[in-house]
Structure formats: C-alpha cells, structure tokens
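### Sample
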Amino acid sequence: MQKTFIPAILASTLALGGCAQLGDLGGLGGILGGDDRGDNYGYGYQNNSEFERAAVQACGREAERYGRVNITYAEQRSRGTYTVQGRIDNRDQRRDQFTCEFRDDGRIVDFKLG
C-alpha cells in the first residue's frame, strides 16, 4: 500500500504545481486562496484601450497593499492621465476607498485613500 501512496502524492503535487504556474493559479484560484476574477479587479472595461488596462492594473496593484480591491471607475480625464477609483475590502472605513492618477509614461502620480 505504501508503494502506491507515494506516487499518488507526487502526481498530485506536480499537478497542483503546474496549475499554480498559470496566471492566477489557473482554475484553482478559489480553492487555493487566489482570485478568480482575473486581473481586472472586478472592473468591466468600457474603452478597452491599452492605456485603460494599464491604469487599472497599476492602480489595482498599488491598492492591493491595503486589502482586496474592487475597481469601480476608470476614466481618461486629460490627455495622458487616467483616473481610477475603487473600494478596498478592509476593516478601516476611513481607508476603504481610493483614487489613483496614472500617467501614460507608466507612473502613478497620485494615490489617495479615503
């Protein structure tokens, strides 16, 4: 019985390891604690431009430092600048919202909580 048990453990370990290599833990994200929402933080792209995607990604990653993120709004306010707003799932109600300004050179120029 021990001879068949060890190969079964090795096979399952390799299978799970392969899934973890896929973006967002593959289809096992919910089981293993990852996020199955993909990389858009719950935001449905309106413009679907590369600039909008880059802004949502950068601002979402910055906001993730404070908790789980849900992007609620993204709009190009001026030429070369995108504004992204969202909510952060944490216990501090004073810091559960954020606003982020993202420039077309790939930099976050302003990030505010509250």
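Residues 29 and 36 are 5 Å apart (CA to CA). This sample (Lipoprotein) is used throughout the tutorial notebook.
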